[in-house]
Structures are given as structure tokens and as C-alpha cells.
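Case study: Iron(III) transport system permease protein.
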Amino acid sequence: MTAVARASERARARPKPGPAGREATPVTRTRPPLALVAAALVAASAAAIPLVYLVVRAGETGAATIIQTLTRGRVLEYAANSLTLALATTAAALVLGTAVAVVLTRIRVPFPRTWLLISALPLAVPSYLAGYGWLVSIPSLSGFLPSWLLLTAVTVPYVTLPVAAALRSATGDLEGVARSLGRGPLAAFFVATWPQVRPAAIAGSLLVALYSLSEFGLVAMLRYPTLTWGINSAYSASFDRAQAATLALLLVVLALIVVAGERGARRQLPRQAARAVRPRPVRRGMLVALLPVVAVAPVVGVAVPLFGLATRLVQAETLRDIDVPRLLSAVGATLGVAVAAAVLATLLALPIAALAARYRGRFVSAIESVGYLGHALPGIVVGLSLVFFSLAVVPVLYQGVAVLVFAYAVLFMPKAIGTMRAGLGDVPPRLVSVARTTGVSPLAAWWRVTVPLALPSVGVGSLLVAIATMKELPATLLLRPTGIDTLATELWNRTVVFEFGAAAPYAALLVLLAAVPAMILSGVSTTAKEEL
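Here is what the predicted structure looks like once written out:
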């Protein structure tokens, strides 16, 4: 082995720095406990059920039927609209999100933390609620342009947050050299700094693409037919399982391509902090001109929709027509399924997170990847797949709360895995070893030492799942039991028939319920903000 190869091997073996300069807990190549592996396999198998059964259902239709379905003119239109919207939204979010991140990290603005929080606000508002807020004011909105603008507004933070974090850790030395060679500020940034933050920008942009491909509520409200709209139509109109399953599988293929690119980009994110560029002061006139760049997405995606909601909510006829028992029933259903989904997702994510935090290997990576499948499965696909699965395998559970909660757990388990893995990985293994010297079993030592120290990250993961469950719409529409409606479905049912006044109370309570844990998480960690 050459000296260069030996040095490279030592560098790979050296523990990478963790948060605040601490060394991250190293993973090990020792064999994991059998009980932990078994629990992780059960959780991964549960996460794989929707995709596996969807593939089986689509395969039963035969290759000829699949080709015939995919070559229909209407299906091609759905696919083209989905790809066009995803590409346009991703490009716009990349440009605007990067610009916002540069303003917030490279320019001295008053109250920078407040502006960062404002830039992240669209993450807490469901896209279909943003569409509702605009339709209240302009009922004639429809088509590609408003769908593109609103989707861009609510997804910009997916680019802003990781790019801002990357800019803070990007070295400014090369940019200073470029400026000394006569380059302007913009040219120096693209030559020296952009290559350092490009992986973060790509990762955020691919999340935007995934969000756009899986979007259902907003595009349906604005009557822009995409693949998600086509899947729902095929299921609702004639219960055409073959066409619905084929369209769902096509959407999954597109989403998996995006997820593969996103995970590859995340692996290239910078790991170490460097000497960053300090924010520089600018003239008051330029600052006044730049701050609207930061505010445009929160205004379009949050302020205008909430203003439309508030104006409709305070109208006399709206207050007079509120069905209080039905409203309270929707609140109870929303909170009930959110808590149940958070508990189930946490239980399923815990063994996968513990395995990935402590052990390394292809087998461990495969289990973790399966656990993240929900990240690539649009809600409408999971809902449709579990409709088929419950009818064929467990018909007694069809249209039951258990299947609905399971769908939420599969969809949002990745949010819990990510935060819990980070928390478990920060617990030094030597503490568990010290506990073992007192004569307790490995499980007891883990329970006494690791669980208390990792409990905050478990709580964050559970809150993330609960928030996402409150806002979820397409899977809920397909799987909710008869007679049970959440705030999201009540809002949807009234908006699609243009009963904006009747929808206002449900929208207002949905915002309030989701805002409380979202505000808590906004100050917890960057991870929580990114996952919102």
C-alpha cells in the first residue's frame, strides 16, 4: 500500500467532527445484536408493504395493459404536466432560495434570526391551504402559472435552509483571492463559493422536485391535471385498479429517481466548518431593495393566504354557519390520528435509527434505505396501495383507523429516523459500557443511559410526524373511515365545491394546531426546520 493510500485510509478511519466541534460518535463494524436486527427488519418490512404490493398489483395487469395505459394521450398529458411543474418549481426555488440564503448570510441585515425564521414560515403551511387562501380572494385562479408560483413559494425554504447552513461553513479565502484578481462580487461568488455550496443547493432542489411530483391538493384545487390528479380520478371515477396502479407506479419511478439524486447530493455536503465570510454592511437603499427578496415567498405562501382566510373567517355569515359539533369532531380526529401516527412511527423508526447510528455495513444501509422509502412515496400512492392491500389481505381492516395510522407511519417514518439517528449517534458508547460494569444487561444499560440522553431527539421526531400527519391530505382522502373527517379533509370537501366560508373555520384551526409544535421545533435545531 502506498503512503498516499495509507494516509487516505487513516483519514477515512478518523472520527468526523460533530456539532459544535465535538467528535461524532464513531460507528462500529461489530455484529449488531440479533434482537435489534430483528426489530429493524420488522420495521423495514412494514415500510416496504405499500411499494411491494403496488408492484405486485401493477404486475398482475400484464405488460400489454401497462404499455397501453402509459401510451394513452391523457396519461402522457398528466406525466408531461407533472414533469413541467416539477422542473419549473425546482428551477425557481433554486434561484430564489439561493438568493435568500446569500442575503441572510453574506449581508448584514437587522434581526437576522427573525428573518431566517420568516424565510422558513412557508414550511408550516400546507400547499393546499395556501391555494385555499388565494382562491378566497381570486376564485378564478387555475392552471399552470398559479400552481407554479404557489408551489415555488411554499418550497423555497427547502433550498434556503441547507444553502444558508453551507454558506456559514464555506471558506471565504478563495472568494477573497478571486476578488483580489479583479473579479466582481457576483463573479467571485460563483467561481469560489458556489462549488462549496452546490451540493446543498442540489439536495434542497431535489427535495423541491419530490414535493412537486407528489403534490395533490394544490394542483387539484387550481385544476391543473397532473399524475396525482389522474391517480385520484382513476380511483374515484370507476375504481379502475389497473390504471390507478400503473399511474401510481410511474409516479413512484419518477420519485425514486429524484430521491436517489437527493441522497447522492447529501453525501457531498461539507462536513467541516471553515473560516467563513462575515456578513458585510450595505447601503440602506440596497438593503431595502434586497429584503423583499427574502419576504416574497412568506408573503405569497403565508401572508396572503392567511389574510384571505382571516377575512373570510370574520364574516358574519361564516361565524353564524359554523357547525361546532362537526368542527370539534374534526379537531378530535386530527389530534387522535396525529398522536397515534407519531407513536407508531417512533416505534418503527427507533430500531432502524439505533442500528444505523451504531453499526455500519451493506446490510445496515439496506435496512435504513428501506426505512426511508416513505420519503419517495407520494401520499396518494401509499393510500392507493394500502386500499388494495387491505381489501386483498386484511379486508377486516379496510377503511379502518388502523390502516390510516399505518399509512401515516410509513409516509413520515423517515422524519423520525433522521432526527433519532442523530440523537442516538451522539450518545458515547463508553457510557453504556460503564453502565454494563454494574452488572446490568445490555438492554437495561441501553434503557438507563441511551434513552434518557436521546429522548429530546425522539421527541423532535415524534413532533415532526405529528405535524406532517395533521397536514396530510391525499392518503387521508383514500383511507379515512366512513364518518371520520380530519380538519384537512373537511377543508378539502368544502373548497372543491367553492364553499370557502364553510371551509374557513377548519382552515383556521388546522393552522393553529400545526403552528404550536412547529413554533417549538423552529427553535430546536436546524434539522427540525429542514424536516418541517
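For the exam, be able to explain this: Residues 1-25 have pLDDT under 50 and may be disordered.
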